[in-house]
Specification:
4 strands, two-stranded antiparallel sheet, 3 domains, single chain
């Protein structure tokens, strides 16, 4: 059976069991639109709890009511769908960054006062008080900015001609190869992995790398987002929006 039919069979076997807790890892992979819509409607009315891992943004926006994020050694909970989570996460980052900057300014002002007046007898006690005030502060950590999609651009290909290929002086330079692979999160020893051991997501990213090495005249993409993480999906979307076919 095809990947889609195998996925349907596995889902059917799981759903007829009607467990109290349904654990789904990328359930929309290989599903056609009708099957996806059916699954979406079924899960919305599911009587048990559903714990979902997915990179399908539209599916998550329809299904998810709570998002859990592990970041900076913290476990953060957000109410709403995935788009709500992105908005709330950005707001939390801006608020924490502002609080961090305000506290750093406060510390700098207190320290400057102490440094200026600690050697003046009439001001020494005040300077010491400022230093103790700094010690009593509960320091706010500088927040890490939310991850953004990495940017890449598919080079415009040359126009095709009667000769399909002409190979002269072929040579994939190592620094160029590493740069292209690194853009798609193949770093350090990852570049030496044989393709047979790559995960589905890694194989999908490797196929995208080929666009950069040998730009095609025609892009034929069959479910290009399957197995891709959400940041790679957003990066691919941005690249395709900027893709331009050469004109006469």
């Amino acid at each position: 059976m095809s990947g889609g039919w195998i996925m349907r069979a596995r889902l059917a076997r799981l759903l007829v069991m009607e467990p109290d807790l349904l654990l789904l890892d990328e359930p929309t992979n290989h599903l056609d639109l009708l099957a996806l819509l059916w699954l979406q409607n079924y899960l919305k009315n599911y009587s048990g709890a559903v714990l979902l891992i997915s990179h399908d943004r539209e599916f998550m926006d329809e299904m998810v009511t709570q998002v859990y994020e592990i970041s900076e050694r913290k476990f953060n909970a957000f109410t709403g769908n995935y788009s709500d989570y992105l908005r709330q996460r950005e707001e939390c980052y801006e608020q924490q960054l502002a609080a961090y900057k305000n506290q750093q300014k406060e510390i700098a002002d207190l320290q400057a006062f102490a440094d200026r007046f600690r050697s003046i007898p009439s001001k020494a006690s005040q300077a010491q008080s400022k230093l103790k005030q700094i010690e009593r502060l509960e320091l706010i950590e500088k927040p890490m900015p939310p991850r953004k999609p990495f940017r890449f651009q598919i080079p415009p290909p040359p126009r095709g001609g009667q000769r399909a290929a002409s190979l002269v002086g072929i040579h994939m330079r190592e620094d160029e190869g590493r740069a292209g692979l690194g853009s798609f999160m193949f770093r350090k020893d990852d570049i030496y992995k044989p393709t047979k051991v790559l995960s589905g997501g890694e194989k999908s990213r490797l196929n995208l790398v080929k666009f950069l090495v040998d730009p095609p005249n025609l892009l034929l993409m069959d479910e290009p987002t399957t197995h891709l993480d959400i940041h790679t999906v957003e990066s691919l979307t941005l690249a395709l929006e900027r893709y331009r076919y050469p004109k006469d």
